[in-house]
Design a protein that fits this description.
With 128 residues, the protein is mainly β. The protein is built from one helix and eleven strands, in the order βββββββββαββ. It has one helix at 106-109, and strands spanning 2-7, 10-13, 18-26, 34-39, 46-51, 58-60, 68-73, 78-83, 92-99, 115-118, 122-127.
Length: 128
């Protein structure tokens, strides 16, 4: 099993930065790819970023590419999302996620498919 806990959200102004954290426990941390999703009010949950188990490969959707950076510290069993130049449209509840198994090819995960475990979410609100 994988247990995920997000933290680091808050209320900021447009142009500000936030760093989200996702603490993971359960399966061997370094064996699992991890990802970030977000859900804006009234909208479906959207995949935005993923990182391989080793941290050597990352993927971003166009909505966040160039502004957000996903990285991980496997010694601390923690994944991060550094969010820069935040915009009001980034306002959402952010979730970290893990796949059901560590056998899914990364290309499948970056399509938004294959994610099965979720944290409780952390709220990010960007004012303007």
């Amino acid at each position: 099993q994988v247990h995920l806990v997000e933290s680091g959200g808050g209320l900021v102004q447009a142009g500000d930065s936030l760093k989200l954290s996702c603490a993971a426990s359960g399966r061997t941390f370094g064996d699992n790819a991890l990802g970030w999703f977000r859900s804006a009010p009234g909208k479906e949950r959207a995949f935005i970023a993923a990182i391989s188990g080793s941290g050597n490969t990352t993927f971003y959707t166009d909505s966040v590419k160039g502004r957000f950076t996903i990285f991980r510290d496997n010694d601390k069993n923690t994944m991060y999302l550094q969010m820069n130049n935040l915009k009001p449209e980034d306002t959402a509840k952010y979730y970290c996620a893990a796949p059901l198994t560590n056998r899914y090819p990364f290309r499948i995960l970056t399509s938004g498919r294959g994610w099965s475990f979720w944290g409780q979410g952390t709220q990010v609100t960007v004012s303007s």
